[in-house]
Amino acid sequence: MTEGVFGRHSGHEQVVYCHHEASGLKAIIGIYSTALGPALGGTRFYPYATEDEALDDVLALSKGMAYKNALAGLDLGGGKAVIIGDPATVKSEALLRAYGRFVDSLGGRYLTACDMGTYVRDMDVVARETRYVTGRSPENGGAGDSSVLTAFGVFQGIRASAEHRWGTPELTGRRVGVAGVGKVGHILVDHLVEAGARVVVTDVAEAAVDRVRAAHPDVAVVSDVDAMIGTELDVFAPCARGGVLTDETVAALRAQIVCGAANNQLAHPGVDKLLADRGVLFAPDYLVNAGGVIQVDDERHGFDFARAQRKTAEIFETTKSVYALAEADGVPPAAAADRLAERRIAEVGRLRGILKV
């Protein structure tokens, strides 16, 4: 499989396969870059159909984390891990602790945290085997659920996008569709409703939709993502799995702005141009969903929620800067965000060659 990784021309520094037969652990850790510092990225627990599918996901996600951390101004590189399996049936203390030992074996090159399928309580278990973990519970010295600031950051991205498109960040009366109302999406709905937006939601989990409707009875519901894509919206906020923006979905999209929490929303690099050609403003996902990594990074320095929230609020201005650069350079916002991230990785990364006495 190592040759397959190189065959993808992924540019990763390191890819580690983790297998522990007794606990059933099958995981892959991808470290894209440590130019800015240790590679931080969450652990995704998902029932991938094949090992190749899991590998593709960890390669894309870890690269995205490098760009996210760079654009957020953090002294962190980019990494990610995936555990292969259904967390509802195979997750156990033994499996998580075995995973923690593999993380520990990397000696701090990779710092893990929560992601889809893993939670604060899981990080507490992983932390029993390694100190290279963040996103732990407050009872264990951690910052707790990072979804709170992830959603807050996406909300700031939506406000900045609204200002760029309509001249004001106000969302009163704007119709916003949130696809995926799980850990992050349901908190984003809270912000949107409070801001006066008219919210439409969908989720594959009926219980997730029921929770939102219980809190906000006026929220509308559509059957699935395809139905939402075909709905007249001001803002479409994908907050579930990635790859939702394909050639076909962009052609059917009826929103003026796309700004959501899901990682790797573009099915392939050319989709950002398709969005631009259709006049759809796209907020790069790794730019606006950085609130979570800002929170878990702050945990490493003695967590202060107000401090982390102030840092997350800066996503508003960073998003505006990305749009300004995109217009100045004549490129889609995704390309502009990549340029800003790559510039910081290159410029600061070069400082690593300067000996500190």
Automatic annotation (TrEMBL):
Catalytic residues, chain numbering: K80 (proton donor/acceptor)
One Pfam family named in its UniProt record: ELFV_dehydrog_N
Keyword terms: NAD, Nucleotide-binding, Oxidoreductase
Name by which UniProt lists this protein: Glu/Leu/Phe/Val dehydrogenase
Domain of life per record: Bacteria
PROSITE patterns given in the database record: GLFV_DEHYDROGENASE
InterPro entries found in the cross-reference section: Aminoacid_DH-like_N_sf, Glu/Leu/Phe/Val/Trp_DH, Glu/Leu/Phe/Val/Trp_DH_C, Glu/Leu/Phe/Val/Trp_DH_dimer, Glu/Leu/Phe/Val_DH_AS, Glu/Phe/Leu/Val/Trp_DH_bac/arc, NAD(P)-bd_dom_sf
GO biological process: amino acid metabolic process
Signal sequence, start to end: none
Assigned protein family: Belongs to the Glu/Leu/Phe/Val dehydrogenases family.
